[in-house]
Amino acid sequence: MIELNSYFKPLSTEVYASKDSWGVTQMGCLIDFHTEGRFPEVKFAEIAIFNVPEYEGSKNKSISDDCKIRSYFYQLHQHKIPRVVDLGTMKLLSTRKESFKLIQDVCSALLTDGVIPFIIGGGQDVSYAVYKAYASLEKYITLTSVDNSFDIGMEKDNLASYSHLGKMLSHKPSHLFHYVNLGYQSYFVSNAATEMLLSMNFDVVRLGDLKANFQEVEPVMRNTDFLSFDISSVQYAYAKANVYSCPNGLNGEEACKIMRYAGVSDKLTAVGLFEYNQQLDESNQTAQLMAQMLWYFIDGYKIRRQELNPNLKNCIKYTVAFEDGKNEIVFYKSQTSGRWWMGVPFSKEGEKQLQNYFVACSYRDYEVANQGEVPERWLKTYNKFI
User: What does the alpha-carbon distance between residue 324 and residue 365 come to, in Å, rounded to a whole number?
Assistant: First the structure.
């Protein structure tokens, strides 16, 4: 592993000046954080928190390396948490390209060691560096972006918060197996962009549909490797500290629910909360919300069930046959957790026998199949193997 301690600044003493008054169940007492002269033991950690004050591709700005989200997070209470470390603030290098390569290398090192990087801010284009960390490890991933727009940009655009998805899509070789947008708002995206993503068998979920079927976030997160959360997807009333925020969007409770679903997911291995503008956070409400979102992720992580794929011996199997008599979809329901999967057949190169690729789904997908329709989640996955 690279020497992580040389790439991070310790926490400001103001953050932990009151540590003697923290209760034994407060997060400040439960996690290991980077102080002057002492760096956390990362090798045995499960989650590594750090902030990245890189905003060159965003209209949001960083006025300080100290992230006041920590002050609120450390005061929250938990019981029996996983092994969490706070690495501090990443030191940016002299050029943006070097800084992005550093983010990539740090995330790659953490992922290799089975540690979840939990990144707080800068601009959402930092997601591109995280994506390249997976690519450097030859991992094909599902990226889920909680965002009110798609951030595809134009081909000629430089890497920025509004164009980072476009850079991922054009990256060769591609390691983006699947992309999901949660919470886009129709007036912020073009029909052409929506149609393009759908033609690539990606999923885009409009804000109204997301709110109407919120439980469908759970299987989305179970299929996700990297969650990129743009805080501008949250309503201005709940998160004012962002120049891109707008009247409509998720509320605070919904943002926390998404983070808890992400924590529970056995597949998810990286998280980013982006576009926090501390300069605009006069009431500290956005800092408090993001601290609670982090809390909910950890709370969900505590109850992971090691069900990356269904344990077939512990599942009830349901086979739905279609009227043509030739096609069927097999569903699996865990008798332990009640979670659902469906099998998508595919063949490995050089092998004749079909194998199953398991896709996390919901009871709703099973109901759709019983009505004689192929669930979109199944069809889009199947099309990727053709």
Answer: 19
Cβ atoms of 56 and 79 closer than 8 Å: no
DSSP 242-311: -TT--SSSB-HHHHHHHHHHHHH-SS--EEEEE---GGG-SS-HHHHHHHHHHHHHHHHHTT--S-SS--
Q: Assess if residue 307 is contained within a domain.
A: no
pLDDT digits (tens, 9 = 90+) for 72-126: 999 999 988 999 999 999 999 999 999 999 999 999 999 999 999 999 989 999 9
Among candidate residues 259, 279, 301, the one where a domain is terminated: 301
Count: domains in the chain: 2
Range of the domain at 379: 312-385
168 lies in the same domain as 99: yes
CB 42 within 8 A of CB 5: no
Task: Based on the fold, state whether residues 368 and 324 are members of the same structural domain.
Answer: yes
Same domain, residue pair 67 and 166: yes
Query: Is 306 or 354 the better-scoring residue by pLDDT?
Result: 306
Distance CA 360, CA 356 (A): 12
